[in-house]
Amino acid sequence: MRKIDYIRISITDRCNLRCVYCMPEEGVELLKHQDMMSFEEIYNLIKALVPLGIKKIRLTGGEPLVRQNIEELIKMIRSIPEIEDITLTTNGILLEEMADGLKQAGLSRVNVSLDSLDENKFKKITRWGNLEKVLKGIDKAIEVGLNPVKINVVAIKGFNDDEFIKFIDFAYYKEVQVRFIELMPIGESDEEAILKHYPIDDIKTLIETKYKLEENTHIRTNGPAENYNIVGAVGSVGFIGALSHKFCSTCNRLRLTADGRFRPCLYIDKEYDVLSLIRKGASDEELREFVQKIILGKPEGHNMEDGWGNQRRKMSQIGG
Ligand code: SAM
Ligand code: SF4
To answer: Does domain 6-318 bear CATH number 3.40.50.300?
Structure first.
């Protein structure tokens, strides 16, 4: 049976940005507060699932840092001894002010999404984001020890392909891992014209015109990234090719939406409502059985290459 040791939990569908590939400008229809999982429900569910081998939790969203008192949730999860790693994916806007508290609450490290190092382009892709704030957030995260800080760059043909080398220059002097991620056909299709995925092999070839890369099997985890050292640099680089290098067969994660639905695959619109079970008073054993069945039914592969699907839910709602 497939070994699942990692749950990505979306703790909110709200966001303080509107990245063009993720959300329409006006936002999406938001969940009602009572339909979202409470911290207590999330904590109890994780505890119930620990015997299945869950060791790692990633908090995401929407923007996880806009959920009130997220530090409390991190402290609760940290109190479960079997959970080795608690990580967070954020757009970084609130990171400078929150990094210290997050570290103290027990967060292990952060991934910061950053698609451009140019102020105007950053505004264009996020619609109103402030690049300087994100850069300060990254520095603060490094300073307080939320390491290794990973920078997620969604690679988009015709938008940021002229900056791939600039991102490596950035990692040359900073202790970060820049990770190039192929744009996936999930989310907003109305701006599809500018949103073209850029195959990771081509990104690597481009980078190698200036830098020497050495595969780093040392930091190779069972995650989807192929990791490389940049010779002479402080930082490193990783590549995630959901389209060109499918990693479905080794995918070790389940996703839990903010309204308590398990989703075995990002791309496949199939969800299992665990929150209703919890609210009906299911025992830990029943929750484990429920999740084991989902793991057994986890698909062998996706068909993203077919293009933009008609997903009922956007990335911000699923939890990217
Ligand atoms: N708001 C947080 C953030 O932006 O980091 C967490 C949620 S966001 C949905 C998680 C990640 O998904 C971000 O790195 C974002 O760039 C990525 N993402 C969203 N839509 C995507 C798409 N269609 N293809 C590839 N990555 C996408
Ligand atoms: Fe918000 Fe993250 Fe989606 Fe951008 S990618 S709109 S920051 S949830």
So the answer is: no
